[in-house]
Amino acid sequence: MFPRLFTIGDTVTLHTYGLMMASALLVGIFLASRFARRAGLDPGMVWNLGVYMALAGLLGSKILLVLSVWRSSTGNLREFFSLNTLFAGGVWYGGLLLAITVCGFYAWRNRVSFAALGDVYSPGVAGGYALGRLGCFAAGCCWGKPLEAAWAVTFTDPYSARVVGVPLGVPLHPTQLYSSAASALIFLLLVLLWRRRRFNGEIFAAYMMLYAVARFAIEFYRGDPRGDYYFNGALSQAQTICIALFVVAGLFGFYQWRHGAAPAHAESS
Fold it and tell me: Tens of pLDDT along 146-204?
């Protein structure tokens, strides 16, 4: 656990989480630009759109975080404007959905294949997410439930407890590392799938479904507050979205395949 890289006086602090998130965004956009030529897209356009999507992702994650905190705070403005809310990274699904919306609008406005764009960005999103979750581990957020096992982690930094609310001195599931490892594996699978991509949208659909399965499973080990629960508390908000995402992505991929979607472009030399 290493939430702060360094602090200058009482005003300047470089947080490990912020650095890892910035690195994740840059790595994700860079990877997307590298895959662009394989899909017959302009790498410069993919890079520029990636920046807009990254900004939309940050905004969307904060919006869903604020909405979740407002619902769970029962109108308590002190909690709503607390340091926990201010410095929290946000809710991933909010950022993902808004970024996809921006991508879809751009594709419609400029008559570019949304499915091809989805294929291009998916490996970068998976790789960037793996890095971002390491930032979560350093900050202490997104912690797991108590665990008595050799791989359990114990957070001890009072700064993290004050900012993100992680319990100190309690062995916990390292759910941040679970998420990072799962996303790294998904990234490798998507790269391998690119070599035999049959139609535009195949990589995108595969990523949505693989991420939904991984996130759904890891949610059972999360111990931090994550918004509303549904079905009499059986499923978290994220797990409910996972089910919807898996079904929609699966139907999208099946539709693309069943109706003879435009074949993927051959890799350029």
Answer: 999 999 999 999 988 988 889 999 999 999 999 999 999 999 999 999 988 888 899 99
pLDDT higher than threshold 50 for residue 227: yes
Burial of 156 from C-beta contacts in 10 A (0-12 / 13-18 / 19+): exposed
Residue matched to tokens 């472009």: 265
* 10 vs 14: CA distance, rounded Å: 12
Is residue 17 within 8 Å of residue 60, measured between CB atoms? no
β-strand partners of 7:
13
pLDDT tens for each residue of 53-74: 999 988 888 787 677 655 554 4
Segments making up each domain of the chain, as ranges: 4-198
Question: What's the pLDDT at 85?
Answer: 46
Q: Report which of 260, 244, 248, 125 is spatially closest to residue 200, judged by C-alpha positions.
A: 260
For tokens 């535009």, name the residue. 200
Q: What does the CA dihedral 190, 192, 198, 202 come to, rounded to 10 degrees?
A: -10
Local structure of 54: helix, strand or coil: helix
Phi, psi for residue 222 in degrees, rounded to 5: -75, 145
Residue 48: which of 90, 94, 103 has the closest Cα?
103
Write out the two tokens for 93. 């699904």
User: What is the C-alpha separation between 209 and 118, in angstroms, rounded?
Assistant: 13
Work out whether strand 4-8 and strand 12-15 pair parallel, antiparallel, or are unpaired.
Answer: antiparallel
* Backbone phi and psi for residue 194, each to the nearest 5 degrees, phi listed first: -60, -30
Could you report the per-residue pLDDT of 83-126, keeping only the tens digit for each? 444 445 567 778 888 999 999 999 999 999 999 999 999 999 99
Concatenated DSSP letters of 142-160: S-B-B--STT-B----HHH
